[in-house]
Amino acid sequence: MAKSKNNNADNIIVLERDINEPIGDYAVRCLEYNIMTMNLVPGTFISEKIISEMLSISRTPIREAFSRLEKINLIEIYPQKGTMVSLIDTSIVEETSFMRMVFEKEIIKIVCKNFTEKDIKLINKNIEAYEKNINTDKLYELLDLDNEFHRILFFIADKKLTYNLIRDSIKHFNRVRIFNMLEMDRGRTLIEHKNILEHIKEKNVKKLLSLIEAHITHVKDDMVFLKSKFPEYFK
């Protein structure tokens, strides 16, 4: 269940800083994690002072982190008013969904021509990991596994640059996907990934195009339910 709106980051989880991780990157990672997992729900106001104290770092990298997160639509900065975790913008999510669908329908055609047995084993290993963790509270890890499934497809198609270009543009989209995991059925993604794998092995492009389109665009229907239940979280 998503948490109620709060001020000053009462529910924030402080992640451990990696060895040699730049302070600015650490601040971004912590804030992004908490926004994505709904510990910082849409509409929450956060302050440089409180975040810097919680993370035990100076306010300058926090300010820089706010700026970076604003560029990917996860926070909004209002001069003289404060910094707020952005509301979920359905138009951004829908446009991102469209972009992914267009790319991945072309990617899957190439995958059917290029895949090897090693690739099939890699996809299957990813699906097994997702299934193993599906009933845990590790939602961020589940999202990573979901993204990894799609990353593998791009890499099989030898389109690594394309994947890297869209990776940072889908952060807003990913927040809805985690919200979906909190409130709705997690099993659908697992079933669809299994079906995609089976049809890749059969090289059934026609069926795969239909599966990919449905898989990517579910988010639009999901938002109808989520918006009806939590209207205050959406623009």
Which class best fits the helix and strand makeup?
A: mainly alpha
Average pLDDT value?
90
List the helices and strands in order.
HEHHEEHHHHHHH
What is the approximate shape?
globular
Oligomer: single chain
Taking pLDDT < 50 over at least 5 consecutive residues as the criterion, the unreliable ranges are 1-6
The biggest beta sheet, please?
A: 3 strands, antiparallel
Distance between the termini: 20 Å
Keywords: DNA-binding, Transcription, Transcription regulation
Protein name: GntR family transcriptional regulator
Organism: Brachyspira murdochii
Domain HTH gntR-type: 21-88
Describe this structure in words.
A hairpin with a 3-residue loop joins strand 2 (75-78) and strand 3. The chain has a three-stranded antiparallel β-sheet. The chain is built from ten helices and three strands; from the N terminus they run αβααββααααααα. Helix 4 (90-114) crosses helix 6 (139-156). The protein has 235 residues and is mainly alpha-helical. The protein is globular and about 55 Å long. The two termini are 20 Å apart. It is 67% helix and 4% strand. This is GntR family transcriptional regulator. Residues 21-88 form the HTH gntR-type domain. Keywords: DNA-binding, Transcription, Transcription regulation.
Structure summarized in a few sentences:
This protein is mainly α and about 240 residues long. It is about 65% helix and about 5% strand.
